Amino acid sequence: MMYVFLDLDGTLTDSAPGILNSISYALEKMQLPPFEANASWMIGPPVWSTFEKLGVEKAKLDQAVALYRERYTDVGWSENSLYDGVLEQLSILKDQGYKLCIATSKPHSYAKKITAYFGISDFMAHEFGSELDGTRSDKTSLLAHGLGLVGAFAENSLMIGDRNYDVIGAKNNNIKVVGASYGYGGNTELIEAGADALISDVSELSAVVTSFLPLKET
Fold this sequence. Notes:
- It contains nine helices and eight strands.
- By secondary structure, the chain is of the alpha/beta class.
- The strands form two sheets. It has a six-stranded parallel sheet with strand order 5-4-1-6-7-8, sandwiched between helices. The chain has a two-stranded antiparallel ribbon with strand order 2-3.
- Helix 1 packs across helix 3 and helix 4 packs parallel to helix 9 (205-212).
């Protein structure tokens, strides 16, 4: 079996509005200064580390995360949209015989709501995310967990994501990784992290998978 692990935010969906609006909500509720305009760095990493970088005291991180989730679970998750052509590309890969797996640092309880809403789950063999307490929110431990659960070998797997966290997590598990430069990280971040290749549009997804992870003849 050939397994393709796919990040969610910035790779399959444009999730920035819901995430940023929910972060802004939490900061406002805590009477903290708003974040500056260039906020793309907030899409991808665990929300605890985001609030810490925004200056939230360690003792108040759980409060900030709880406020973020208060809004995100209500409306933030739906302030989201599929990138054009995503479902078509996933359909091609599934029909070819690839086992597709979501691998997101987002809590799986939220991620599965999103993938079901947008029809992504119809193409997934497995969906992996973090726990609400932050367990497996880093891509290294998440991918190790995913590989173990499905019984996949690193050489028969490929990771696709838009941030350096995806690249680093894949490399730490000896998985080849393709950077989605149309997402939130951009070319420089992905290249510096060590991505094996880049794609600049969703339409390149199925082609790059078959190039890096050709199906074995049976």
